[in-house]
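2 proteins. here.
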Amino acid sequence: MSSANQHNQSTRLPSSFYHRNVIAVARGLLGQRLVSQVDDSRVSGIIVETEAYLGTIDKAAHTYHGCRTARNETMWGPGGNAYVYFVYGMHHCVNVVAGDPEEPVAVLLRALEPDGGTDVMFTRRAAARHSIDLCSGPGKLCQALDITLASDGEDLVGGKTLFIEEIRKRSLPTSSIGCGPRVGVSYAEEWQQKPLRFWVQGNPNVSRQMGARNEV
C-alpha cells in the first residue's frame, strides 16, 4: 500500500461516504487514511483491515436485539462518527459508525499500515520492535494513535483530533480484498462464520495472516 500521497493534498471522506450499507463502508475504508492529532502530534496510517457489524440482527454486535446503553449510544447516531469502547480492562477499540441514525451498525478498524508519525507511535507502543507491530490489531492501533474513550462520538468528517482522509476515490478492486470470518466472536453462534472481515490482500500489517498473528 503506497503512502506517497502528501497529507496536505488530501481531503476528508465526505459525510455521504458513511451513510451507506455498512459492508460497503467496511470495504470502502480499505486504503483510506486514519489520522489522529493529539498534543500537536499528527499520527496516521492507511486502513488495511476492517470488520462490519450489522446492528440489531448481528449476534456479535453490541446493539444486537436492540440493546441500547450508555456505552453503545454512539452506534445509534449518524454515520461518520467514531465509536470507541474499552475491552478486557486494557484495550481501546475504534469503530466507524455507518448508515443512518437509529440504524446501529459500525465498522471496527482492525489494522493500519503506519504512514506518518511512526516515531511517536514507537514511543506510545514501547513493546513494538518493528513497524508492522505498531498497528496490526485494534488495540495496538488505538494505542499507537492515542485513541481513547475521549474520542467516542468524534465527528470523523469535521473533527479536529480524529478523522479519515480520502486517499482513494474508488474502493479497492475485489481481487485485492480478502474476506473471511470476524475475529474473537465465538459467542455469536451462526454469526461467528459470517464473512464480514475484510483486508488488503498481501499487506503485512493485517492482524491475522492465516490466523497466525496475535492481533491485540
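next one coming up
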Amino acid sequence: MANGQKKRHRKQLLIFALSAQVLIQLLIFLCSYLPLFDSSPWVVWDKSNTWWATASLLRWDVFHIGLVAEERIYEHQWAFFPGVPGFIKLLGHVTPNDSWATLLQEGLMLAIACDSTLVLYELSLRHLKSPSLSFLSAMLSLLPSSPVTLRYAAYAEPFFTWASYRGMLACVESRWALASAYFTLAGAFRSNGILLSGFILWGILVEPFLNARTLAINRITYALLLTSLVFSPMVYHQYSGYQAFCQDTEVPAPWCSNFPPSIYTFVQSKYWNVGFLRYWTLQQSPNFLLAAPVIALLSYSSIRSVYSFASLLDKSRPQNFYHFESQSLIPHCIHALVFTSILLFAAHTQIILRFAASLPFTYWSAARLVVEHPQLGKWWVCWSVVWGAVSLVLWSTFLPPA
C-alpha cells in the first residue's frame, strides 16, 4: 500500500512539476509583450530576430555570467562562482552555434533538467517518515519565492539546489563520500556551498559523539578530508583571483595583503556593499518587506525547532516521535538558522527569496504551517502564488528585485 502511494506521489509530482514549468513559460510569454524598464538586452542581440523565450533569459546576473563564460577579466567578476559560466563555456564548445541566444536556451534546458521536486520528496520521506507530509512538502516546493531563477534563467539556483538536495539525501543514507561529491559540485555554483559541510560534520562527528560521548581518530580524519573537498571550489576560486591580481601583475590589488587574501569578500564589499548591517538602511526597507515572509517562516521555525531538539538530546527524557521534530532534522534546522542569520544581517537580504529554495527546511516549515496552523498555511500559499507571479512580471520587464 505504502509503495503504491509513493509511486503515485512521484507520478503526480512529475506532472505538477511539468505543469508549473508550462505556467512559468506561459506567463513569461505574455510578459514578453510588455515594455522593458532597461533595454540592455537589445544591445546584445537583435530584437526582430529574437525568440520570445530567449528574450527574457537575459536579465540581471545573466549578463555577468555570460561575460565570465567568455573570459574572466575584471575584478568584480569574481563575485560569480565558476559553475554556471563553466557550463555555458562547455556548451559553447559542443554546440555548433555558440551565440548568446543559443547558449542561454540550452541553459534553460539544463535548469529544467535539474528539477529537484522528486529529490525533495525522497529526502522528505527519509526525515518525516510520512508519504503524505513528504508529498505536501514537495508540492509546496512548486511555489518557490523566486520561480524564475529556479526554473527558468541560467542562474546558479537550479544546479545548486539539485546538488544540495542530492548531497543531503546521501547524508541520510550515510554515503558520506557521495555526499561530499555532491556538496563539492554545489560549492562550484554558490559561495554558501561551504555551509553544506556541516551536514557531513554532523553525521560523522557530532551525532556519534552525542550518542556515545567518544570519537575515533579515524572518523575525525575522514570528516576533515571530506570537508576539505567541499571547501575546494571556494579555495580554487580565491586562488584564481590571487593569481590574476596578486601574482601576475606589477601592482598587486589592495586586498592581496589581507589575511586571508580573499578576492570574493573584497569584491562583495566594494562593489555590492556587503557587510555586517550595511544593508540596514531606510532606503532598503522595501527589500526587507519583500523578504519578510520567508525570513519570518525560517526564523520562527528554526528557533522553535532548536528548543524542541534540545529535549531530544536529553536521553533521560521520554522520546516521542513527531514528524516535524525528528532528530534527523537537527542539522537542517541549524543550517537554516545560520543561513537566514547571514542573509538577514550581512547580505542583500532580499536574495533570500532566491536562496530559500536550496533549503528543504523551507518547505518542511511551510508544510508544518499548513498542518498545524491551516489559516496561516493558506496565507503562505496565497503569498507564494501571488508573489511568484509578480516576480515573473518584474523579471520579464527588467525590474528589481533580482
